[in-house]
Design goal:
Elements: E1 5-9, E2 30-31, E3 34-35, H1 36-46, E4 51-56, H2 60-70, E5 75-79, H3 85-96, E6 102-107, E7 110-112, H4 116-129, E8 131-137, E9 146-150, E10 153-158, E11 173-182, H5 195-198, E12 208-210, E13 217-219, H6 223-234, H7 243-251, E14 260-261, E15 264-265, E16 272-274, E17 289-291, E18 303-305, E19 308-310
């Protein structure tokens, strides 16, 4: 039996996205012609998901407008007046829709190219354990926690600042934030809780883990990672972006190839990325500028949205 329900986590405060993150939720940041959240939704639909729930908190009205305009028959919003934490979000979904069972979960700031084959293997693990966490390949030198997995079961999570991290050389994976969770098999807990305490408590229960070292992904969880990704897309032949990500972007009409230049988009100057719906003279703007809409004030640099310049 395939999973038909999706859950996208979108209730973050955007603290890693600078000044613009204070007024525009990270999942709604543009990927050229669309948004990060559009990409995640398209990925879920390609995998056969028929109904999607998203949890929100910060700038909830922007999510309401986004869903009303594009996805009102597909997506239901669960607004958290008070943040419920990475675990409480699942219990809120379980309480609100008690008939749900297996749910495919993705983060609203990660492009994780799960294949149908990966999903089927994950479903088999979820059937056995009630959970399946999907790993992604990383290096111990990267700024990620590492997961230790044995016989397909999560054994330990090493924090990136643990003193013993440098000694761990056999773990090249981390939890991607993508998972399959059978809500029927978790005990409801009201209020705030963490994911690894109340949903995937690997210290008290067996938590299934699936790892494909060849999985394609793009982490857009920080302002610097987001900017790097945009630059790579517009560099010569999509830079280091994987062919699979490139194909998904083109298939989903995320990019207008007629607007791409060398290290620029919809502009007449290198280093300027104009995601507004109109073209205008960008000569006065400094390089490495990302315009989410046409500025209504004097020239600046950095990232611009709704009268705010983030130049850091």
């Amino acid at each position: 039996m395939s999973v038909k329900t999706g859950f996208i986590l979108c209730a973050g405060l955007g603290t890693r996205m600078g000044l613009i993150g204070q007024c525009l939720p990270k999942p709604l940041w543009p990927i050229f012609e669309k948004t990060i959240l559009d990409f995640v939704i398209a990925q879920m639909m390609d995998l056969g998901i028929e109904k999607i729930y998203i949890n929100t908190h910060h700038c909830n009205e922007k999510f309401n407008n986004f869903v009303e305009e594009k996805y009102k028959n597909l997506i239901t919003i669960l607004y958290e007046d008070k943040l419920l934490g990475s675990g409480g979000a699942f219990h809120n979904l379980k309480r609100s829709y008690p008939n749900l069972s297996e749910v495919l979960v993705m983060n609203g700031d990660m492009l994780f190219l799960l294949t149908k084959e990966d999903l089927d293997k994950g479903m088999a693990i979820c059937k056995r354990y009630g959970t399946c966490l999907f790993g992604m390949p990383v290096s111990p030198r990267q700024e990620y926690n590492l997961t230790l997995v044995k016989d397909g079961v999560l054994r330990e999570i090493l924090k990136k600042d643990d003193a013993g991290m440098a000694k761990i050389i056999d773990s090249k994976m981390t939890f991607s934030g993508v998972s399959l969770i059978n809500l029927e098999r978790i005990e409801y807990r009201a209020g705030v809780s963490s994911f690894f305490d109340s949903v995937a408590n690997y210290r008290d229960n067996l938590v299934g883990f699936y790892f494909n070292p060849n999985i394609n992904y793009e982490d857009l969880g920080t302002k610097d990672l987001y900017k790097k990704f945009i630059r790579e897309i517009t560099s010569n032949n999509f830079g280091d972006v994987s062919d699979e990500v490139k194909k998904r972007l083109l298939k989903g009409n995320f990019i207008n190839l007629n607007l791409i230049g060398n290290n620029q988009y919809n502009s007449n100057k290198n280093g300027i990325f104009n995601f507004s719906k109109e073209k205008f003279d960008c000569t006065g703007y400094e390089s490495d500028t990302f315009l989410f809409e046409k500025p209504n004030n004097c020239k600046g640099k950095g990232i611009y949205f709704q009268g705010v310049w983030d130049s850091n």
